[in-house]
Design goal:
three-stranded antiparallel beta sheet, 31 strands, mainly beta
Length: 499
């Protein structure tokens, strides 16, 4: 659509464009190029599409101008180098295209900047404390490194032999944290004296104290000491052959018995002593007095009274002869005989007393020697031994006829004494009650206590009035007369010391 109203709105096909240029006087109509469309075929040049079908006129003119400008050779350009820039042109003979290689002339740069770097830059880089500065003017480099101010040679080492150990180490440092000194303190481990092994040795080179003496303490004199075991009379010592059991057995070796004694066995548990003969262990007189054998080989003396009565023993016939060497009518005679059960008196001055054996006892009278022989014709008859009661009996287990007693052996802290009819057992225990101790709970320093028990290893019970406060009591044994106590929570008024 044409428009005759120039310089006014609504001129052209869209009605939005304003033609700012005065309309030519010879034109009766003016068209907007955006309203004119090229409808022909695509316009190409050297294979390039310059204007396409349906391009608006303003677009087609722009494409044409751009294409022409790109094909027309631009003005010649001069590429030149300088003191510090090198330009090297290279022309392709086929395409006639010249390529320019531009590079920096580093040699000239170094000549120019060397005095600047040295005098203005490097001269201002100074080494501070513990810093080293190395300048390479040729390479144009500066190397800054850490300076080692340590005076200790590495590696540090401390050695010890035997019981020596490192107890402490101290180091000295400078302001930069470098080690300038090192010192070491060593210590020595002191081993306590103790018994490490137990050994069976022969009874040689030892001095023995009294039997069952609790004060003969065996103390280790050095670390790793050996405790010796020595077998006494009739004692066997056996060491275990299995290392993990670690035991020494003490056993009774048995006795050497003379077969003529009437005893058999060796006294061990496997072969106990047995008496195969009946023996008299008690003799009783008419007046009721009696005597017991005090030992296994005790002797009973049968003597005359000096009034015409004489005793004689025949060792060949093992007989005892009691003879009246002064017979007369005025002599004293036995008118009564008393047995274990019953008694008899002479009825006449010519009465006869029959002595008859029983239960393995046989009596024989020898008219030629006027002797009465009383013989045990059954010596193998056993006598049962029974306990009078209690948890233990002092009579050997089993049957007689020998009457034998068990032996009593005093253990630790026990002493034994005896007489003809009794055995006294006394506990070897010392005790002392200490009153007015005066310990207050919470006191900082332990309280030293002096006692008179006379032993280092003692038992101690603590009391606060009538209350037992031993639990929680801290005790340190010092020597045979002194120990210390410390109770953090309870007062202590009295102490019982037991040896």
């Amino acid at each position: 659509m044409a428009c005759t109203n120039c310089n006014t709105p609504s001129c052209g096909c869209s009605g939005t464009h304003v033609v700012s240029v005065t309309c030519p006087p010879a034109c009766s109509e003016v068209f907007n190029m955006q309203c004119i469309v090229y409808t022909g075929v695509d316009l190409t040049c050297d294979g390039d599409t310059v204007i396409s079908r349906n391009d608006y006129l303003d677009e087609a003119i722009t494409k044409l101008v751009n294409y022409v400008c790109s094909k027309v050779a631009p003005p010649a350009s001069v590429v030149a180098g300088s003191t510090f820039i090198d330009v090297v042109p290279t022309t392709d003979p086929v395409t006639d295209v010249t390529t320019y290689t531009v590079s920096a002339d580093m040699a000239q740069f170094e000549v120019y900047f060397a005095p600047i770097i040295t005098n203005q830059i490097l001269a201002k880089i100074l080494a501070g404390p513990a810093i080293d500065v190395a300048v390479d003017t040729g390479a144009g480099t500066v190397t800054i490194s850490h300076q080692d101010t340590s005076t200790v040679v590495s590696p540090l080492a401390v050695t010890g032999t035997g019981n020596t150990f490192l107890q402490a180490a101290s180091f000295s440092f400078d302001t930069f944290g470098h080690v300038t000194g090192a010192a070491f303190t060593t210590g020595t481990v002191t081993h306590q004296n103790n018994f490490v092994t137990a050994k069976i040795n022969p009874d040689a080179g030892f001095t023995w104290g009294p039997n069952n003496n609790p004060t003969d303490l065996q103390t280790a004199e050095a670390p790793g000491d050996t405790l010796n075991f020595v077998a006494g009379e009739a004692i066997y010592l056996n060491g275990s052959t299995v290392p993990s059991t670690d035991a020494i057995r003490i056993s009774f070796a048995g006795l050497s018995i003379d077969s003529a004694s009437g005893l058999s066995g060796d006294g061990t548990a496997a072969s106990p002593l047995v008496n195969s003969k009946n023996v008299w262990t008690r003799f009783t007189a008419d007046d009721g007095t009696l005597v017991n054998a005090d030992t296994t080989n005790d002797v009973l003396a049968v003597v005359g009274n000096g009034g015409g009565i004489q005793t004689t023993i025949d060792p060949l016939t093992d007989t005892l002869k009691i003879e009246n060497t002064l017979p007369n009518v005025d002599q004293n005679v036995w008118t009564r005989f008393v047995g274990d059960v019953g008694a008899v008196d002479a009825d006449t001055d010519t009465d006869i007393l029959n002595v008859i054996g029983a239960g393995g006892i046989t009596t024989t009278i020898d008219p030629a020697t006027d002797t009465l022989e009383i013989e045990n014709t059954s010596p193998a008859t056993s006598v049962a031994l029974t306990s009078a009661g209690g948890t233990e009996t002092l009579v050997n287990d089993g049957t007689g006829p020998a009457l034998a007693n068990k032996g009593l052996t005093a253990g630790d802290g026990i002493s034994l004494s005896s007489d003809a009819v009794s055995v006294t057992i006394v506990a070897d225990v010392q005790r002392q009650l200490l009153s007015g101790v005066g310990w207050t709970a919470g006191t900082v320093t332990p309280l030293s206590i002096t006692h008179g028990v006379g032993e280092t290893y003692v038992q101690i019970r603590a009391f606060d009035g009538l209350n037992d406060v031993t639990e929680g009591l801290l005790i340190a044994l010092v020597n045979s007369t002194t120990f210390t106590i410390d109770h953090p929570t309870r007062n202590v008024t009295d102490l019982l010391v037991i040896g």
